[in-house]
Every structure is written in C-alpha cells, then in structure tokens.
Design goal:
201 residues; mainly alpha; Serine Threonine Protein Phosphatase 5, Tetratricopeptide repeat; two-stranded antiparallel ribbon; 8 helices; globular; binds adenosine-5'-diphosphate; binds magnesium ion; DhaK_L_YcgS; kinase; Dihydroxyacetone kinase subunit L
C-alpha cells in the first residue's frame, strides 16, 4: 500500500485548485439555476488563498496541510460552502494527527470524520441535494480505491439532479430545485477527482 506524505497532500490541494479555476464558470452556472450564482467564484477565491498560503508557509505534515487549507477556506469564502469545505479539510486534518505519512486507510477514516463534521455543521443528510450526496459515497468507496471514490462522488453529484433541495439556498425554491445538479455536490466530485488524479488513478 502506498504511503501518502506531505507532498501528496500539497499536490492534491493544488490539483483541486486548478480544477476549481477550470470549472469556475460551470459551477457558477449551476448555482445560477438554484442559488445565487457565486459558487464558482467562491471556490476560486478560496482555493487561490489555499495555494497562496501553502506556498508562503508550507506545513510539514499532511494533517497541518489540510488544517491550513481549511482555515483559508473559512476565512476567505463568504458563502455557505466556505465554512462547510473549511470544516471538511480542518476536521480531516485534525483526524490525521501529526504523522509525517498516512496510509490510504487512515485518510479514508479521517475523511469520514471530516464528512461527519460537515453533516453536523450543515444539518444535511444524504438525499438533501447538497455536497453530502457526493462526499458520503466517496468516503464509503475510498475503502476500495481512489478511483472508486472519484466515480462514486461523480455518480452522487449526478444523482442530485432529480432531488428536491432540503438545505441551503436551493431549498428556498422548493420543487423548482428539481431538475438541476447541485453545485456543491459537483465541486465535491472535483475535489475527490483531484485526489484520485494525485494518486495516479
Ligand atoms: P451560498 O449558498 O451561500 O451562496 P455556495 O454557492 O458557495 O454558497 O455553495 C452552495 C452549496 O453549498 C450548495 O450547492 C450545497 O451543496 C452546499 N450547501 C449549502 N447549504 C448546505 C448545508 N446546510 N449542508 C451541506 N451543504 C450545503
Ligand atoms: Mg451560491
Ligand atoms: Mg452566496
């Protein structure tokens, strides 16, 4: 089994930042249908701050890398997704502790704690048409492989299309939220795809 070191986590986050840049317009387009048209610009700003902070003061461990990234997202993203993604990365980082290297199994367990913290903070459950719909299946599939987690996240995001939103701005639309893919579930699938790409899967 491969060991994941601090360089792996830096590459994951810079790869994710590049995905957010590339997909910013698409994410904002999705958010314009059922939200306030800022999801792409929110994550672009947040992940630029993440890569900036990682260059300026590169942390020495995987855990500290994710904690720093989470803190940047919380402080630079005004929307709901900032505190939620910030909590995901901070909580996952804390769960990794201060070891220099972690196994994929340890990362899977830590991400599980991170996703649970997001669910607790936002009060969303699977099926509420949020980022949880991509993140929960991804964590479950991470026991198999990074590639399986990425596929599960993408499937989860696509499966939000027929759902009615029960959390976040989209829930204000009631039944009119049906028929659109959730922006946060879509960006979560990008985050997990970046993880698989970093692992070479
Ligand atoms: P805002 O809605 O404040 O403009 P964003 O547009 O950046 O924030 O993010 C919207 C996304 O955040 C949604 O598509 C959804 O996936 C996610 N989200 C919103 N509220 C919640 C919540 N309570 N729990 C989980 N995810 C949520
Ligand atoms: Mg928005
Ligand atoms: Mg907003």
């Amino acid at each position: 089994e491969p060991v994941l070191d601090v360089d792996f986590f830096r590459r994951w986050l810079t790869t994710a930042a590049a995905s957010m840049e590339r997909e910013a317009d698409h994410l904002t387009q999705l958010d314009s249908a059922i939200g306030d048209a800022d999801h792409g610009s929110n994550l672009q700003r947040g992940f630029r701050a993440v890569t900036g902070a990682l260059e300026k003061e590169p942390p020495a461990t995987p855990g500290a890398t994710l904690v720093l990234a989470g803190r940047q997202l919380i402080s630079t993203v005004g929307g709901a997704s900032g505190p939620l993604y910030g909590t995901l990365l901070r909580r996952t980082g804390k769960a990794l502790g201060d070891s220099a290297e972690v196994t994929p199994a340890q990362l899977a367990e830590a991400l599980g704690a991170g996703v649970a913290a997001v669910a607790q903070l936002g009060g969303a459950k699977a099926g509420d048409k949020t980022m949880i719909d991509a993140l929960e299946p991804a964590v479950a599939a991470l026991a198999t492989s990074f590639a399986a987690a990425s596929a599960a996240a993408e499937e989860g995001a696509v499966a939000t299309v027929p759902l009615q939103a029960r959390k976040g701005r989209a829930s204000y639309l009631g039944e009119r939220s049906i028929g659109h893919q959730d922006p946060g579930a879509t960006s979560s699938a990008l985050l997990i795809a970046a993880l698989a790409a970093t692992a070479g899967e």
